[in-house]
Amino acid sequence: MIIGKHRNTQAIIDLDAIKVNIQNEIKQLKQAQSLFAVVKADAYGHGLLPVAEAAKKAGAKGFCVAVIDEALALRQAGFDDEILVLGVNPASTAVLMAQNKITCTVGDYDFLIKAQLLLKEAKQKLLVHIALDTGMGRIGFKTKAELKQVLMFMQNYPQQFEFDGIFTHFASADSEDETYYLQQLTKFNELLSVITKKPRYIHVANSAASLWHRKCGGNMIRFGIAMYGLNPNSKINTPFELKPALSLVSELAAVKKVTKGEAIGYGSTYRAKEDEWIGTVPIGYADGWLRRMQGFKVLVDGHYCEIVGRVCMDQMMIRLPKRYDLETRVTLIGEDHGNEVTAQDVADYAQTIHYEITCGLAPRVTRLYKSK
Q1: In CA terms, which of 142, 143, 174, 273 is 20 to 30 Å from 51?
Q2: Are 200 and 146 contained in the same domain?
Protein backbone atom coordinates (compact mmCIF):
# COMPACT_ATOMS: atom_id res chain seq x y z
CA MET A 1 0.00 0.00 0.00
CA ILE A 2 1.36 3.42 -0.99
CA ILE A 3 0.74 5.98 1.74
CA GLY A 4 1.59 9.62 2.19
CA LYS A 5 1.77 10.51 -1.51
CA HIS A 6 -1.11 12.98 -1.38
CA ARG A 7 -0.09 14.82 1.77
CA ASN A 8 2.66 17.42 1.71
CA THR A 9 4.25 16.36 4.97
CA GLN A 10 7.65 15.12 3.95
CA ALA A 11 11.05 14.13 5.25
CA ILE A 12 13.59 15.34 2.69
CA ILE A 13 16.77 13.27 2.75
CA ASP A 14 19.98 14.71 1.34
CA LEU A 15 21.90 11.64 0.17
CA ASP A 16 24.91 13.78 -0.71
CA ALA A 17 25.19 14.82 2.94
CA ILE A 18 25.31 11.15 3.93
CA LYS A 19 28.03 10.51 1.37
CA VAL A 20 30.09 13.47 2.60
CA ASN A 21 29.84 12.34 6.23
CA ILE A 22 31.02 8.85 5.30
CA GLN A 23 33.83 10.10 3.08
CA ASN A 24 35.08 12.46 5.79
CA GLU A 25 35.10 9.59 8.27
CA ILE A 26 36.93 7.28 5.87
CA LYS A 27 39.66 9.92 5.53
CA GLN A 28 40.28 9.54 9.27
CA LEU A 29 40.59 5.74 9.19
CA LYS A 30 43.76 3.75 9.28
CA GLN A 31 44.62 1.87 6.10
CA ALA A 32 43.50 -1.50 7.45
CA GLN A 33 40.16 -0.25 8.77
CA SER A 34 36.80 -0.67 7.06
CA LEU A 35 33.60 1.28 7.56
CA PHE A 36 30.28 -0.52 7.94
CA ALA A 37 27.22 1.69 7.58
CA VAL A 38 24.64 1.20 10.32
CA VAL A 39 21.28 1.26 8.55
CA LYS A 40 19.08 -0.35 11.20
CA ALA A 41 15.63 1.05 12.04
CA ASP A 42 15.01 2.05 8.42
CA ALA A 43 18.37 3.87 8.44
CA TYR A 44 17.42 5.79 11.58
CA GLY A 45 14.22 6.87 9.84
CA HIS A 46 15.99 8.07 6.69
CA GLY A 47 15.08 5.09 4.48
CA LEU A 48 16.94 1.77 4.35
CA LEU A 49 17.55 1.17 0.65
CA PRO A 50 18.33 4.70 -0.60
CA VAL A 51 20.69 5.28 2.33
CA ALA A 52 22.40 1.91 1.86
CA GLU A 53 22.97 2.66 -1.81
CA ALA A 54 24.42 6.09 -0.99
CA ALA A 55 26.63 4.60 1.75
CA LYS A 56 28.01 1.97 -0.58
CA LYS A 57 28.81 4.58 -3.23
CA ALA A 58 30.60 6.62 -0.56
CA GLY A 59 32.87 3.72 0.38
CA ALA A 60 31.09 1.63 3.02
CA LYS A 61 32.33 -1.97 2.87
CA GLY A 62 29.37 -3.54 4.62
CA PHE A 63 26.22 -2.91 6.64
CA CYS A 64 24.99 -3.34 10.19
CA VAL A 65 21.31 -3.90 10.91
CA ALA A 66 19.35 -4.79 14.03
CA VAL A 67 17.06 -7.56 12.82
CA ILE A 68 17.06 -10.28 10.16
CA ASP A 69 14.23 -8.71 8.15
CA GLU A 70 16.36 -5.62 7.56
CA ALA A 71 19.18 -7.82 6.26
CA LEU A 72 16.79 -9.72 3.99
CA ALA A 73 15.45 -6.44 2.59
CA LEU A 74 19.00 -5.50 1.59
CA ARG A 75 19.61 -8.91 0.02
CA GLN A 76 16.34 -8.79 -1.90
CA ALA A 77 17.33 -5.37 -3.21
CA GLY A 78 20.52 -6.83 -4.64
CA PHE A 79 23.14 -5.85 -2.04
CA ASP A 80 25.80 -8.56 -1.91
CA ASP A 81 28.00 -6.90 0.73
CA GLU A 82 28.54 -8.34 4.20
CA ILE A 83 25.57 -7.64 6.45
CA LEU A 84 25.93 -8.05 10.20
CA VAL A 85 22.80 -8.44 12.31
CA LEU A 86 23.74 -6.77 15.58
CA GLY A 87 20.89 -8.28 17.58
CA VAL A 88 20.74 -11.87 18.79
CA ASN A 89 18.19 -14.26 17.31
CA PRO A 90 16.78 -17.71 18.07
CA ALA A 91 18.65 -20.74 16.75
CA SER A 92 15.72 -21.51 14.45
CA THR A 93 16.86 -18.61 12.24
CA ALA A 94 20.42 -19.88 11.78
CA VAL A 95 19.75 -21.70 8.52
CA LEU A 96 17.89 -18.73 7.03
CA MET A 97 20.83 -16.45 7.84
CA ALA A 98 23.35 -18.91 6.44
CA GLN A 99 21.38 -19.39 3.22
CA ASN A 100 21.31 -15.62 2.68
CA LYS A 101 24.94 -15.08 3.73
CA ILE A 102 23.85 -12.92 6.65
CA THR A 103 26.41 -12.61 9.44
CA CYS A 104 25.03 -13.62 12.80
CA THR A 105 25.75 -12.14 16.24
CA VAL A 106 26.18 -14.84 18.88
CA GLY A 107 25.98 -14.03 22.57
CA ASP A 108 24.70 -17.29 24.00
CA TYR A 109 26.28 -20.75 24.09
CA ASP A 110 22.95 -22.58 23.81
CA PHE A 111 22.34 -20.86 20.47
CA LEU A 112 25.43 -22.56 19.04
CA ILE A 113 24.42 -25.99 20.29
CA LYS A 114 20.96 -25.80 18.74
CA ALA A 115 22.11 -24.03 15.57
CA GLN A 116 24.84 -26.59 14.90
CA LEU A 117 22.31 -29.39 14.50
CA LEU A 118 20.10 -27.36 12.20
CA LEU A 119 23.02 -26.15 10.08
CA LYS A 120 24.42 -29.66 9.76
CA GLU A 121 21.08 -31.00 8.58
CA ALA A 122 20.74 -28.17 6.04
CA LYS A 123 24.41 -28.40 5.00
CA GLN A 124 24.93 -24.71 5.64
CA LYS A 125 27.76 -22.67 7.21
CA LEU A 126 27.03 -19.60 9.30
CA LEU A 127 29.25 -16.52 9.55
CA VAL A 128 29.51 -15.56 13.22
CA HIS A 129 30.47 -12.42 15.13
CA ILE A 130 30.83 -13.02 18.87
CA ALA A 131 29.36 -10.33 21.12
CA LEU A 132 31.17 -9.49 24.34
CA ASP A 133 29.44 -7.74 27.22
CA THR A 134 32.07 -5.43 28.68
CA GLY A 135 29.66 -3.22 30.57
CA MET A 136 26.63 -2.46 28.40
CA GLY A 137 24.66 -5.21 30.12
CA ARG A 138 22.69 -6.04 27.01
CA ILE A 139 24.01 -9.06 25.10
CA GLY A 140 27.26 -11.00 24.95
CA PHE A 141 29.71 -13.16 26.85
CA LYS A 142 31.33 -11.71 29.97
CA THR A 143 34.15 -14.05 31.00
CA LYS A 144 37.22 -15.66 29.50
CA ALA A 145 35.85 -19.09 30.40
CA GLU A 146 32.65 -18.46 28.43
CA LEU A 147 34.60 -17.16 25.46
CA LYS A 148 36.97 -20.15 25.45
CA GLN A 149 34.00 -22.51 25.52
CA VAL A 150 32.42 -20.78 22.53
CA LEU A 151 35.65 -20.72 20.54
CA MET A 152 36.28 -24.40 21.19
CA PHE A 153 32.76 -25.32 20.14
CA MET A 154 33.05 -23.49 16.81
CA GLN A 155 36.49 -25.02 16.20
CA ASN A 156 34.93 -28.44 16.65
CA TYR A 157 32.30 -27.72 14.00
CA PRO A 158 34.09 -25.89 11.16
CA GLN A 159 31.53 -27.13 8.64
CA GLN A 160 28.78 -25.23 10.42
CA PHE A 161 30.48 -22.09 11.78
CA GLU A 162 32.99 -19.55 10.52
CA PHE A 163 34.39 -17.24 13.19
CA ASP A 164 34.30 -13.96 11.26
CA GLY A 165 34.37 -11.30 13.96
CA ILE A 166 34.23 -10.25 17.59
CA PHE A 167 32.94 -7.01 19.08
CA THR A 168 31.59 -5.06 22.01
CA HIS A 169 29.48 -1.94 22.37
CA PHE A 170 30.42 1.08 24.45
CA ALA A 171 27.81 2.49 26.80
CA SER A 172 29.39 5.93 27.17
CA ALA A 173 31.85 6.63 24.36
CA ASP A 174 29.99 9.91 23.86
CA SER A 175 30.65 11.08 27.42
CA GLU A 176 33.19 13.72 28.37
CA ASP A 177 34.09 11.50 31.33
CA GLU A 178 36.15 8.68 29.81
CA THR A 179 36.31 6.52 32.95
CA TYR A 180 33.67 3.95 32.05
CA TYR A 181 34.67 3.89 28.38
CA LEU A 182 38.24 3.02 29.39
CA GLN A 183 36.99 0.31 31.76
CA GLN A 184 35.07 -1.29 28.93
CA LEU A 185 38.00 -1.05 26.53
CA THR A 186 40.30 -2.69 29.09
CA LYS A 187 37.78 -5.49 29.63
CA PHE A 188 37.47 -6.05 25.90
CA ASN A 189 41.23 -6.33 25.43
CA GLU A 190 41.45 -8.75 28.36
CA LEU A 191 38.83 -11.01 26.80
CA LEU A 192 40.46 -10.69 23.41
CA SER A 193 43.71 -12.07 24.83
CA VAL A 194 42.30 -15.61 24.94
CA ILE A 195 41.93 -15.73 21.15
CA THR A 196 44.94 -17.29 19.46
CA LYS A 197 43.73 -16.92 15.87
CA LYS A 198 42.06 -13.56 15.37
CA PRO A 199 38.95 -13.35 13.15
CA ARG A 200 38.67 -11.13 10.09
CA TYR A 201 36.91 -8.33 11.98
CA ILE A 202 37.53 -6.94 15.45
CA HIS A 203 35.32 -3.95 16.16
CA VAL A 204 34.46 -1.71 19.07
CA ALA A 205 33.96 1.73 17.52
CA ASN A 206 30.49 3.14 17.15
CA SER A 207 30.08 6.70 15.84
CA ALA A 208 31.12 8.28 19.14
CA ALA A 209 34.22 6.13 19.54
CA SER A 210 35.21 6.65 15.92
CA LEU A 211 34.97 10.43 16.36
CA TRP A 212 36.58 10.89 19.77
CA HIS A 213 38.48 7.69 20.59
CA ARG A 214 40.39 6.82 17.45
CA LYS A 215 42.94 4.79 19.39
CA CYS A 216 40.34 2.32 20.64
CA GLY A 217 41.53 -0.24 18.11
CA GLY A 218 39.79 -2.67 15.83
CA ASN A 219 39.75 -2.85 12.07
CA MET A 220 36.10 -2.03 11.48
CA ILE A 221 34.01 1.05 12.31
CA ARG A 222 30.26 0.83 12.87
CA PHE A 223 29.28 4.26 11.57
CA GLY A 224 25.77 5.08 12.71
CA ILE A 225 24.26 8.36 13.90
CA ALA A 226 27.15 10.48 12.59
CA MET A 227 26.54 9.14 9.08
CA TYR A 228 23.24 11.03 9.15
CA GLY A 229 25.00 14.24 10.18
CA LEU A 230 23.95 14.14 13.83
CA ASN A 231 26.44 14.59 16.66
CA PRO A 232 26.32 11.79 19.28
CA ASN A 233 26.96 14.45 21.92
CA SER A 234 26.08 17.99 20.93
CA LYS A 235 28.24 19.38 23.75
CA ILE A 236 31.46 18.03 22.21
CA ASN A 237 32.82 19.30 18.90
CA THR A 238 33.38 16.69 16.20
CA PRO A 239 36.75 16.45 14.40
CA PHE A 240 35.04 17.32 11.12
CA GLU A 241 31.77 19.00 10.24
CA LEU A 242 28.76 16.72 10.16
CA LYS A 243 26.13 17.58 7.56
CA PRO A 244 22.55 16.79 8.69
CA ALA A 245 20.78 14.75 6.05
CA LEU A 246 17.16 15.08 7.11
CA SER A 247 14.74 18.00 6.87
CA LEU A 248 11.10 17.73 7.90
CA VAL A 249 8.58 19.98 6.18
CA SER A 250 4.85 20.38 5.85
CA GLU A 251 2.48 23.18 4.80
CA LEU A 252 -0.36 25.35 5.96
CA ALA A 253 -3.57 23.42 5.38
CA ALA A 254 -5.81 26.05 6.99
CA VAL A 255 -5.39 29.66 8.12
CA LYS A 256 -7.90 31.57 10.23
CA LYS A 257 -8.07 34.62 12.44
CA VAL A 258 -9.17 34.09 16.02
CA THR A 259 -10.14 36.73 18.55
CA LYS A 260 -8.59 37.36 21.93
CA GLY A 261 -9.58 34.65 24.41
CA GLU A 262 -10.56 31.98 21.87
CA ALA A 263 -9.38 28.48 22.75
CA ILE A 264 -7.25 26.30 20.49
CA GLY A 265 -7.05 22.50 20.50
CA TYR A 266 -7.97 19.63 22.80
CA GLY A 267 -8.44 20.58 26.42
CA SER A 268 -8.42 24.29 25.55
CA THR A 269 -4.84 24.49 26.78
CA TYR A 270 -4.14 27.65 24.76
CA ARG A 271 -6.19 30.82 24.52
CA ALA A 272 -5.32 33.63 22.16
CA LYS A 273 -3.64 36.51 23.97
CA GLU A 274 -4.93 38.91 21.33
CA ASP A 275 -6.49 38.68 17.88
CA GLU A 276 -4.19 36.16 16.18
CA TRP A 277 -3.65 34.30 12.91
CA ILE A 278 -3.63 30.54 13.48
CA GLY A 279 -2.35 28.05 10.93
CA THR A 280 -3.18 24.36 10.87
CA VAL A 281 -0.38 22.01 9.77
CA PRO A 282 -1.06 18.39 8.65
CA ILE A 283 1.32 16.58 10.98
CA GLY A 284 0.74 15.08 14.40
CA TYR A 285 1.81 12.47 16.87
CA ALA A 286 0.77 9.65 14.52
CA ASP A 287 3.51 10.95 12.23
CA GLY A 288 6.05 10.92 15.03
CA TRP A 289 5.72 14.62 15.88
CA LEU A 290 5.30 14.18 19.60
CA ARG A 291 2.33 15.48 21.56
CA ARG A 292 4.73 17.13 23.99
CA MET A 293 5.92 19.53 21.25
CA GLN A 294 3.24 22.05 22.25
CA GLY A 295 5.05 25.33 22.89
CA PHE A 296 7.93 24.53 20.54
CA LYS A 297 8.58 26.59 17.42
CA VAL A 298 8.61 25.83 13.70
CA LEU A 299 9.58 28.06 10.77
CA VAL A 300 7.25 29.81 8.33
CA ASP A 301 8.78 32.25 5.86
CA GLY A 302 11.82 32.45 8.12
CA HIS A 303 9.75 33.35 11.19
CA TYR A 304 9.72 31.20 14.32
CA CYS A 305 6.10 30.28 14.99
CA GLU A 306 4.92 28.73 18.24
CA ILE A 307 2.95 25.48 18.32
CA VAL A 308 -0.24 26.41 20.18
CA GLY A 309 -2.73 24.00 21.67
CA ARG A 310 -2.08 20.30 22.00
CA VAL A 311 -0.55 18.46 19.06
CA CYS A 312 -3.30 16.25 17.63
CA MET A 313 -2.96 12.81 16.07
CA ASP A 314 -2.82 14.15 12.51
CA GLN A 315 -2.64 17.94 12.79
CA MET A 316 -1.28 20.77 14.89
CA MET A 317 -1.85 24.50 15.12
CA ILE A 318 0.73 27.30 15.05
CA ARG A 319 0.55 31.03 15.73
CA LEU A 320 1.48 33.05 12.63
CA PRO A 321 2.85 36.59 12.54
CA LYS A 322 0.39 37.46 9.78
CA ARG A 323 -1.96 35.83 7.29
CA TYR A 324 -0.25 33.41 4.92
CA ASP A 325 -1.60 31.62 1.88
CA LEU A 326 -2.60 27.99 2.05
CA GLU A 327 0.20 25.58 1.09
CA THR A 328 2.89 27.92 2.45
CA ARG A 329 5.79 25.73 3.56
CA VAL A 330 6.27 24.96 7.25
CA THR A 331 9.72 23.75 8.31
CA LEU A 332 9.82 21.57 11.40
CA ILE A 333 13.46 20.46 11.01
CA GLY A 334 15.78 22.31 8.69
CA GLU A 335 16.62 25.81 7.44
CA ASP A 336 14.33 28.53 6.17
CA HIS A 337 15.42 32.06 5.20
CA GLY A 338 18.58 31.90 7.28
CA ASN A 339 16.99 30.50 10.44
CA GLU A 340 17.11 26.87 11.49
CA VAL A 341 15.47 24.25 13.67
CA THR A 342 17.71 21.21 14.18
CA ALA A 343 16.85 17.67 15.19
CA GLN A 344 18.86 18.39 18.33
CA ASP A 345 16.60 21.39 19.08
CA VAL A 346 13.56 19.15 18.75
CA ALA A 347 15.12 16.48 20.95
CA ASP A 348 16.13 18.98 23.62
CA TYR A 349 12.59 20.34 23.82
CA ALA A 350 11.12 16.83 23.93
CA GLN A 351 13.67 15.82 26.59
CA THR A 352 14.99 12.96 24.51
CA ILE A 353 17.73 12.32 21.93
CA HIS A 354 17.72 13.06 18.21
CA TYR A 355 17.99 9.31 17.47
CA GLU A 356 14.44 8.94 18.78
CA ILE A 357 13.17 11.92 16.80
CA THR A 358 14.31 10.65 13.39
CA CYS A 359 13.59 6.97 14.13
CA GLY A 360 10.10 7.90 15.27
CA LEU A 361 8.99 9.43 11.97
CA ALA A 362 6.11 7.27 10.77
CA PRO A 363 5.98 5.54 7.36
CA ARG A 364 3.16 7.82 6.24
CA VAL A 365 5.61 10.73 6.28
CA THR A 366 6.79 10.59 2.67
CA ARG A 367 10.57 10.36 2.21
CA LEU A 368 11.88 12.43 -0.67
CA TYR A 369 15.49 11.95 -1.74
CA LYS A 370 17.80 14.48 -3.33
CA SER A 371 21.26 13.96 -4.79
CA LYS A 372 23.27 15.71 -7.45
Answers
A1: 174
A2: yes
